[in-house]
Amino acid sequence: MNPTAPAARQLARARAAFVLVHGAWHSSAQWAATLRELARLGAAGYAVDLPGHGLDGPLPGGYLLPGQPGLLTEKSPLASVTMDECAEAVLETLSLARHHHRVVLVAHSAGGGPAALAAERAPELVDALVHLSAFVPVGRPRFLDYVEAPENATSRGHSLSLGDSAALGAVRINPLSPDPAYVEQLRLAYYQDTPRDRFGRWRAALGTDVPLAVTSTPVTLTAERWGSIPRTFLRCADDQALTPAVQDLMIAEADRAMPARPFTVRTLPGGHSPFAARPAELAAALLA
Questions:
Q1: Which residues are in the AB hydrolase-1 domain (predicted)?
Q2: Which residues pair with residue 201 across a beta bridge?
């Protein structure tokens, strides 16, 4: 056995960086445990806050008030956020990470749209793509096209949206809902395998709104740019938000459209949010 091999692997990891893009209602904060595990394994990580998300993200005016007045009707403070602005936030972080030897762009769920658009615009900044149960805008250009597909009909996320999304300018949920049935549906959709004693903290950290543009703006990708980047799809085997069937549909349609470089597909156990349930396993899968 070559005694220098472990040191060589450690050096290679230290020269790699993972840029992590969150999904709907999440933020960079939800990646914290995964970033720690990546660091433990010798890799760097950068977590993106998409516009309107994170600690500085605005909330509907009545959300934190007793009775949550206006939650179903108040126009979202994120209504004007565009897909272009979201992609620019990803590009800014990719530029910061570019001094590393290798940059891996990782997108979760609805974050697949902004991440894919960023990679299309600057493929030279990305050495590899990872879609973690994430939207792939190749076969169908809008996230909604897959969310509403028959293959996703059993998703538990469908019943969580509140109000008229078009009027609100956002897809709105209520993480602080006083309705136990609603809260349980939220848990089953996104955190069904996260320990129950931690679910309350994860739920409280969610935002209320994802800009409508993130779900409804068409994203156009080309084989010459986005399609030139090696890519992996990490399937979540028991996903209750984006079902395994719709994950497989996105993979199949992308591979048919861009057959020269198909997805490498790996399956992770559990639900939609492995960064909450099993961050060490997720970090190991990313490094693999």
A1: 18-285
A2: none
Segments forming the whole domain that contains residue 182: 5-287
Q: Which of 47, 59, 27 is nearest to 170 (CA)?
A: 59
DSSP state of 270: S
Instruction: Name the 3-class secondary structure at 196.
Output: helix
CATH for 244? 3.40.50.1820
- The tokens for 17 are 């960086």
pTM: 0.93
Is residue 182 within 8 Å of residue 174, measured between CB atoms? yes
Stretches where the chain sits below pLDDT 50 are 1-5, 8-9, 11-13
Q: How many domains does the chain have?
A: 1
Residue pointed to by tokens 């559990």: 270
Question: What is the per-residue pLDDT across 190-244, written as a single tens digit (0 to 9) for each?
Answer: 999 999 999 999 999 999 999 999 999 999 999 999 999 999 999 999 999 999 9
Cβ count within 10 A of residue 92: 11
Calculate the alpha carbon distances from 136 to 62, 69, 144 in Å: 34, 36, 11
pLDDT 10s digits, 71-99: 999 999 999 999 999 999 999 999 999 99
Contacts of 20 (CB under 8 A, 6+ apart): 28, 31, 34, 35, 45, 46, 47, 48, 106, 108
Cβ proximity of 115 and 134 under 8 Å: yes
